[in-house]
Design goal:
Number of strands: 0
Radius of gyration: 24 Å
Shape: rod-shaped
Structural class: mainly alpha
Number of helices: 4
Distance between the termini: 81 Å
Length: about 60
Amino acid sequence: MSEVKHQQSIEQQGQLSDAQLEAVAGGVDFDQLRRENLDKDAVDFDQLRRENLEKDAVAHPVQ
């Protein structure tokens, strides 16, 4: 199979070889990036709950 046909086949399947992925990634450490994003997305539910309780107390004061 010629290189062009092989490349077209890969593009149609949406898959890249490891070498192609490394070339595209440009040295990015995706595992590190994934960990950083998970840390950013992590929610402190206790803090969120306290903030919501405070908002409710201000919006609906007990008389």
